[in-house]
Amino acid sequence: MYPCHFHHKRAVDVVCRHGPARVLELVQLGADFTRNRDGSLHLTREGGHSGRRIVHAADLTGAEIERALLAAARATGNVEFFEHHLAVDLVTDEVGGAPHCFGVDVLDTRSNTACRFLSLATMLASGGAGQVYPNTTNPHVATGDGIAMAYRAGAAVSNMEFVQFHPTALFSKKGAGGGGGGGEAGRVFLISEAVRGEGGVLLNSRGERFMASYDDRLELAPRDVVARAIQDQMMSHASDHVWLDISHKPARDVLSHFPNIAARCKEDGIDITRDPIPVLPAQHYTCGGVATGLRGETGVQGLYACGEVACSGLHGANRLASNSLLEGLVFADRAAGPSVAHAEYALRHCGGELRRAATAAPAGAGAAAAAATAPAEWAAGRRGELQALMWRAAGIVRREAALAAALARVEELSAEAAAAAARHGVSAPLVELSNLLTCARLILSCALQRKESRGGHFSPDYPGLDPEARPSLVALPPRRVGTNGGVGQGAGDDARTGAGAGAGARGAAGGGAPGSPKKRAKRPAAAPAPAAQREAAHREMAVRSTPRDQE
Ligand SMILES: Cc1cc2nc3c(=O)[nH]c(=O)nc-3n(C[C@H](O)[C@H](O)[C@H](O)COP(=O)(O)OP(=O)(O)OC[C@H]3O[C@@H](n4cnc5c(N)ncnc54)[C@H](O)[C@@H]3O)c2cc1C
């Protein structure tokens, strides 16, 4: 069931079987993928791949998929888009002894007004938590909001210690990222692995090719191996970057494969057809996330997750290049049918809970008044401190003592953030800071529990693989669910609230409606617990390693 990298065999099988149909569906929707001269789809190859298998749109595949899907969604005419709306917390209640999601509280970030979106089925697709780190290829909004919200609502979260660091982000002279990478507003520019796939070689500051000393697969070794090798070379030669050179390939091929990379490098005065590109590793992908089953179901009834926010088991301890867009497509499709079935169930059986959710005030009510005093600068400073701390302690190489010290500091920062939220109310900077702190705590706790090195978690204290080790699974103790600002929940001391970790995550396996419509007696929704109590709840966070259920 768990080969050395923790891939969940059934999830891998599902993606392999259903992936091609999803790609063809995108083509039918108008996605403009790169083609060979004969009109067939061009396939590229990246790190860890044994052959060419990646359909792509030059070097902007994700952007092209997003463009095609947005156009298709707009064309239906029955999809409403709410831009500049920040999801703050899930609306949850208890049905049949298990947590159940009835929508989401959001903050309109332009007017700073809070409102509640009720829903019969809710899909989280909020991406990863790259902003936990200073050097990341992820956008400024990748603050792990969905992971933190689902965790607060009682869903299990899995494999958070497995963070993928991409070996080659552009070392830019423009601006300064906290870790030295530079780049636009909180993110560094990715130099796609396809550059190495198409023959690019890595050189150290002395101009020597070095990957042969680390792995037989040279530049196409898996990302964790290449990222560690680059970090080692940078430290050995006291340099802040290495070089990626593809200038030996025909200029016409390079420019047609990598037009976007060529254009971005040109802004820094680099002609990639002639010059090597200065690169360094950067956080790139959150392998862990909300634990989901094969239909996108989570440990909270009515809550589904797909894409980077989820941990379906496909990526195991280290995602293979270009598997994530496909994973999102496959599991979003698979969750659609069950979520409709669940909505029908909720409509029939959850009228009382829905009425209660409709009458309670949304999280963040009074945000407009709070906005005037929102400590944005303070939150930005704490966010920067957190990022630098995580890069040092929970970056490419992790030491146990540093992880423990970082966790202690993150606890302090979390207490400060909770106090600030209690004083100033809900605001976007505080919501994001609080979610980043929750994700950091999950990463550090899981990393401390792991007494081995595997995939995206490397510790010189435990350099080998432990054959007995299991994926990690974390959940708030049931009686504490919803105590970190959760909406529509009690003060969190009721043992009936919440489904626990693994059992909850599998409770809706197959995506059907919950088995028992029996409801327990309800008490009225109470105010969120005081900050100190919420903090205590987090400290009690249960971290354990549990084998995934057979599916
Ligand atoms: C530079 C780069 C290149 C990549 N290239 C590839 C590739 O070639 N192939 C591949 O397979 N993968 C690639 N990846 C990874 C892949 O792009 C991501 O894993 C994937 O886009 C995740 O999709 P998603 O829909 O889950 O989340 P995202 O694409 O991150 O979208 C999440 C959305 O949720 C919104 N959101 C977040 N929080 C909230 C909130 N609280 N309220 C409201 N909205 C919110 C965000 O604004 C965003 O619109 C790349 C990643 C990066 C950063």
TrEMBL record:
Region feature Disordered, mapped onto this chain: 453-551
Database matches in Pfam families: FAD_binding_2, Succ_DH_flav_C
Start-end of Basic and acidic residues biased regions: 535-551
GO biological process assignments: NAD+ biosynthetic process
Cofactors, names only: FAD
Keywords for this protein: Coiled coil, FAD, Flavoprotein, Oxidoreductase, Pyridine nucleotide biosynthesis
Residue stretches in coiled coil: 396-423
Annotated family: Belongs to the FAD-dependent oxidoreductase 2 family. NadB subfamily.
Protein's UniProt name: L-aspartate oxidase
Lineage, uppermost ranks: Eukaryota, Viridiplantae, Chlorophyta, core chlorophytes, Chlorophyceae
